[in-house]
Amino acid sequence: MKHRIVIVGAGFAGLTVAHGLRGVDCDITVIDQRNHHLFQPLLYQVATSMLATSDIAWPIRSLLRDRKDVTTLLGKVDGVDRDAREVILPHGIRVPYDSLVIATGVRHAYFGKDHWEENAPGLKTLEDATTVRRRLLLAFERAEMSEDEAERDAQLTFAVIGAGPTGVELVGIIAELAHRILPGEFRRSDTRRAKVMLIEAGPRILPAFGEKLSAYASNALTRRGVEVKTGTPVTECTSDGIVLGDAFLPARTVIWAAGVQASPAKDWLHAKADHAGRVIVNDDLTLPGDPSIFVLGDTAHVESDGQLVPGVAPAAKQQGRHAARTIRARLTGAKPPGRFRYRNMGNLATVGRNAAVIEYGRFQMKGLLAWWVWGIAHIYFLIGARSRLFVSLNWLWSFLSRQNSARLITQKENKPSSGQSKEADGVARRDRS
Ligand SMILES: Cc1cc2nc3c(=O)[nH]c(=O)nc-3n(C[C@H](O)[C@H](O)[C@H](O)COP(=O)(O)OP(=O)(O)OC[C@H]3O[C@@H](n4cnc5c(N)ncnc54)[C@H](O)[C@@H]3O)c2cc1C
């Protein structure tokens, strides 16, 4: 019987393992709870209606269609039976393995306030992105419908909690949408009055970047009409707004970009984990005491040169390549690569439509040129010629015309809101699809 490799999670790490095992004589099963591989770095562009969902996600089955050695299963893994060497899926389905790769990423963390999620969705999946897009666009519609000034102001207040790259990228585009793109399309409300707020508990935005770039980004956002509030923890989050210190801020659209927690892999494996739930692995990415199991990407805690490897796409891909090389070496009798070493590819974030910050070691870049570099890098990493072409054309069109091409309200909005008018509710109902 051929060696059976089960890969749980077809994100950056899991898919890279499957690609890295091409030509090895083994049977590979890829299991994911979704039918698509998602390019998360551009999720915020779907959430802000710059790109369509199909521009940044591809069916896993079609990505692996030419690989006769790979079987793809759609299912949510519930656990791992390490004694029997089986992965557990719902309805008693079990998939046996000789080598197991767990690369199940992260989910949102609300620091013990899980009930905030309904009012402040995060951005992790395509469903999250379309929820955020719907709420953003509905808020403008409801402001246009409302005859009450306080309610209109609350509808036109957008609060993003957390000032890492995702938070910064979101407010940049929301401000652009409200202040520049939409004003000509609304008659009863003035979308230029929209308040776009970036709220951060820590002392500065983009803490992973140097202080100069962080200050540049903060100024660039302020120039674009974003209110940046640092050192301001959110203490409550309701369907009508948020509490900052002692003050209540009426805001009907709140987006969470403040924290993540690893997938429950540590519970499946009964493994040691760090404070964020990441499984602590050996320096070759295997589980301590069980070399047949690899844990990779965002769900793994691994250090390289004394530093925790960050939860970014290049790190997940590098880990995927390393695990594939190790498994290949084991199966062919070659020398395994040993210790994993992370090659830092730098930090990138956009600040609105035509500015970005880039940091690579001591090298720093900012402004329009950095934005072009950011754009080219992201186009390069998209899968398939079709996506690259469509995304490039969409960006070019939106850059030249100041239009967002995917401004569609889809599906019913369930979030309760005290100020929501009956007519505005009708907008949501009519747009259900
Ligand atoms: C909004 C956002 C923006 C980002 N921007 C950037 C950026 O600009 N640059 C950058 O480098 N990184 C960025 N990242 C981080 C980057 O996307 C992650 O580091 C990377 O996706 C990690 O890859 P992974 O393979 O570990 O996990 P993921 O890519 O998250 O893949 C995990 C896979 O596991 C599947 N899965 C999870 N649980 C189960 C289960 N129980 N059963 C079956 N399948 C399961 C999921 O469906 C998913 O397909 C961003 C992330 C987000 C959310």
UniProtKB/TrEMBL annotation:
Record InterPro entries: FAD/NAD-bd_sf (IPR036188), FAD/NAD-binding_dom (IPR023753), NDH-2 (IPR045024), NDH2-like_C (IPR054585)
EC number: 1.6.5.9
Keyword Iron-sulfur appears in the UniProt entry: no
Positions of the UniProt region annotated as Disordered: 410-433
Ranges for domain External alternative NADH-ubiquinone oxidoreductase-like C-terminal: 345-400
Reaction it catalyzes: a quinone + NADH + H(+) = a quinol + NAD(+)
Residue span, FAD/NAD(P)-binding domain: 4-320
Skewed-composition ranges (Basic and acidic residues): 422-433
Gene Ontology MF annotations: NADH dehydrogenase (quinone) (non-electrogenic) activity
Main EC class the enzyme belongs to: oxidoreductase
Stretches that traverse the bilayer: 371-397
Alphabetic keyword roster: FAD, Flavoprotein, Membrane, NAD, Oxidoreductase, Transit peptide, Transmembrane, Transmembrane helix
UniProt xrefs under Gene3D superfamilies: 3.50.50.100
Family named by the database record: Belongs to the NADH dehydrogenase family.
Designated name of the protein: NADH:ubiquinone reductase (non-electrogenic)
Organism, as annotated: Paracoccus alkanivorans
